[in-house]
Amino acid sequence: MSGLSIKKIDPKALPTMEEVSKKIEKILRALFRDSYSKYVIKQDNTKFLILPPRYYYFPPIVILINSHPDDESRALFISLTRRIPLDSNDDLFEILGSVDELLGGYLEIVHRSEEAKLRGDEEANKMYYLVLTHKLHALAMEDEAWFLLILTALIRADEKLFSKVQAPERVESSETTPVEFT
Questions:
Q1: Looking at the domain assignment, is residue 58 inside a domain?
Q2: Residue at 2 is within a domain
Q3: How many domains does the chain have?
Q4: Among the four 28, 79, 87, 141, which has the fewest Cβ within 10 Å?
């Protein structure tokens, strides 16, 4: 390899877990303002749950601060994750196509019980989840815009998915009765 040298960052150059936690909390308080206590649950200094405005339909966004393996007091990554339940008939590629390209996505299949598996009722035993995720390096928190960009992409994911689910229903209802706005 010509001229490529891989250098490990000294963990002391990374922000502390406490610093990153305070910065995330400050951003979330500014973003949600008076609704902070309604939409944000801080479980500890390393884990936040964001309940999206339509949290009855979609699961929370989980923000985890991951420590450096060589120094537990230093932050290495901030993981933003969301698990969205899917119907087995849903087209995963179509759904992923409507989600922001900044987010990684994969299908998670959870088996409910061994009993159903033994009975041969394999399909009824499965639960499907679309997992949307992004890992942000702790040094990226120096520019808060990166964190906001990823967080808003996760928040907007439910708007895009919710509109896809509701769109056919709205078209049918608008044909039968006109909608009036006051």
A1: yes
A2: no
A3: 1
A4: 87
The boundaries of the domain holding residue 28 are 12-164
CATH, residue 159: 3.30.1460
Helix-helix angle 17-32:144-176, to 10 degrees: 40
Instruction: Tell me phi and psi for residue 163, to 5 degrees.
Output: -70, -35
Q: Specify if 65 maps to a domain.
A: yes
Quote the radius of gyration of the chain (alpha carbons, Å): 21
Residues 6+ apart with CB under 8 A from 49: 40, 41, 43, 60, 61, 62, 63
Identify whether the C-beta of residue 107 lies closer than 8 Å to the C-beta of residue 92.
yes
Residues near 100 by beta carbon (within 8 Å), at least 6 away in sequence = 153, 156, 157
Q: Which residue, 85, 81, 125, 78, is CA-closest to 107?
A: 85
Each residue's pLDDT, cut to its tens digit, for the chain (182 residues) gives 567 878 888 889 999 999 999 999 999 999 999 999 999 999 999 999 998 766 666 688 999 999 999 999 999 999 999 888 877 666 667 777 767 777 888 888 887 777 666 666 666 678 888 888 999 999 999 999 999 999 988 887 766 666 655 544 444 444 444 444 33
Q: Flag whether 4 is in a domain.
A: no
pTM of the model: 0.76
* Residues whose CB falls within 8 Å of the CB of residue 130, separated by 6 or more in sequence, listed in order: 83, 84, 86, 92, 95, 96, 105, 106, 107, 108
